[in-house]
Amino acid sequence: MVKVAVSGINAVDNPGPGLGIIKGLREGETPVSVVGLAYDAMEPGIYLTDLIERAYLLPYPSEGEAPFLNRLLYIKEKEGLEVIIPALDAELPLFIDLEERLSSYGLKTFLPTQKQFKLRAKDHLPEVAEAIGIKTPRTLVLTSYEELMKALSQLKFPIMVKGLFYKAFRAYTQAEAQQYFHAIVAEWGYPVIVQEVVKGEEMNVVGVGDGEGGHFGLVAIKKLWITSLGKIWTGVTVTHPELLTAAESFVKHFRWRGAFELETIVSGDDIYLIEINPRFPAWIYFAVGVGINLPARLLKAALGGEPERDWDYPAGKLYIRFTDDLVTDLEVFQHMVTRGER
Amino acid sequence: MKLKRLAISEEGFVFDPETGNSYTVNETGLLILKKLREGLSPEEIAGIMSEEYGISREEALRDIQDFLEAMARFGLWEEKYG
Q1: A259 three-class SS
Q2: At what angle do helices A145-154 and A174-188 cross, to 10 degrees?
Q3: Which of A67, A109, A246, A267 qualifies as a FRET site for A149, CA 20 to 30 Å off?
Q4: What domain of life (chain B) (predicted)?
């Protein structure tokens, strides 16, 4: 039985990947006991005792390395934790920085390098796309209001206005673009990215790189229904050869290590790279459901094993997300608030 | 040939595994798709349709051309016969 901790158990309207990862781990060959890592006592995963045996609150990564590391070591001590699978963007830089130290304490991970993690910054996308033989929408990186005004006179509306790592708004007019620009600067600072909108099919690929140019499987999907936040609600597997080739080139060229998701727009014969996520997406259970159990393979890699590499999945499998509800005692919430664990 | 990759059910449900798009076709559309996949030309299919539905070859060929134009709009038909 492997004790593994998973974060991102916030299964809300913008769900974290945690529960999908955990479902995959539970369906894998290696028996697991799961510790859920949360940042808020209300994260739904805390209450799903069939999926998550024990749950702990973590300090926010912004509080610094020391409290974060101490908390992880406390959990290791108490639970006999062996592996951690972090699933949220905001905590990943810290986990990557701590990787060696965690390893020296016997806590295993399977993460991208700091350099690889930095590729997800939106101002790196054109460079990544070029390296793997696909395109990016026309993109400008702005560091002042003057540059915005100049950019708006060059780009065709609608455009996307994005922060370097977070937030993306679609603007149809100059006024909207300016409003979103100010909102992003106020929250995240410069640079702000503006990008022409490409029309086409929204297709994503998930995979796990082995860190040496190969991978432990890829699955490509198309989003059929999305929520108002742009999150997938239903989807279908696809076997778009050029898209999968681009994903393989990505892994090979950057020698990607760990989980990743490439978000693209496919327009005729052109593929546009929109985003790189250095972790599993929230729909990761889709890959598990079509027979490519990427979370279980990543766990095996973290444990030093040699995971399967087959990835012959069928096109035309359907993914359906649904809402669910649960009634439980206040006691669990109480424990999370007072003790930070249950 | 893009048609080769399509999954076509007997009920007229058509799935494109590369794009993830799905379509429905009626009985006539299904007949045209199947015959195209067998490698028949639009003219040959018009002959079959004219016998099957009791219409002239010209009318059948016009319908087939309309159908192929619709398929071209969906990116499922590009070459003249393929």
Answers
A1: strand
A2: 140
A3: A267
A4: Bacteria
Contact A270, A246 (CB under 8 A): no
Q: Are A216 and A308 in contact (CB under 8 A)?
A: yes
Establish if A134 belongs to a structural domain.
no
Residues in chain B with CB shorter than 8 Å from the CB of A221 are: 20
Interchain pair A239, B18: CB under 8 A: yes
Closest A-chain CA to B15: A316
Is 60 exceeded by the pLDDT of residue B81? no
CATH of the domain at A234: 3.30.470.20
CB-CB neighbors (< 8 A) of B76 in chain A: none
pLDDT grade for B42, boundaries at 50, 70 and 90: very high
Would the CB atoms of A221 and B17 count as touching at under 8 Å? no
Q: What are phi and psi of B15, to 5 degrees?
A: -120, 130
Whether residues A316 and A329 share a domain: the answer is no
Range of the domain at A80: 2-110+325-339
- Domain membership of residue B35 as a residue range: 2-73
CATH number at residue A177: 3.30.1490
Query: Does the interface predicted TM-score (ipTM) exceed 0.90?
Result: no
Q: Which of chain B's residues have a Cβ under 8 Å away from the Cβ of A238?
A: 17-20
Question: In this structure, is residue A140 part of a structural domain?
Answer: no
Contact (Cβ atoms closer than 8 angstroms) between residue A193 and residue A139: yes
Residue spans of chain A under pLDDT 70: none
Model confidence over A206-216: pLDDT tens digits? 999 999 999 99
Asked if residue A46 belongs to a domain, the reply is: yes
- Nearest Cβ partner of B20 from A238, A241, A268? A238
